[in-house]
Structures are given as C-alpha cells and as structure tokens.
Amino acid sequence: MAKFKIKRGDKVVVIAGDDKGREGEVLRVLPKKSQVIVRGCNAAKKAVKPSENNKEGGFISKELPIHISNVKKAEG
Description:
SH3 type barrels; single chain; mainly beta
C-alpha cells in the first residue's frame, strides 16, 4: 500500500478532469485504490427512494472519488 502526502482535511486543487481548477477539502483518502474524495468536486446526482429519514425521496448530490494523481495540495 502506498503512502500519500495528502491527508484528510487538506485543501487541494484539482489539476485534471472536468473539475480542473476547483479547490476543496479532502473528505476521505482511499489508499488501496489511490483515490481521494474532495468536497464539491466530481459530484453526481443519485436517485433515492423514500424512507423514514427521507420522506420525499428524490435526488441527492454525492461526491465520487478522484485519482490522487489528479489533485495537488493548495498553496497556503
């Protein structure tokens, strides 16, 4: 398993992909897959059925993982 310089809570900038240039906070690091989940980046809409917690159902926005090579630590 590789060791990364990016940790949970770090501010990062996306350097490749659809969200290039966006800045966000690392929510989770997935070392086995070499991926990170960044708040507000690579978001997808997910359909949710009605349940006790969510009476209406509908859509929620969920962040998907980004490969660690496509992010770098933000300056400052």
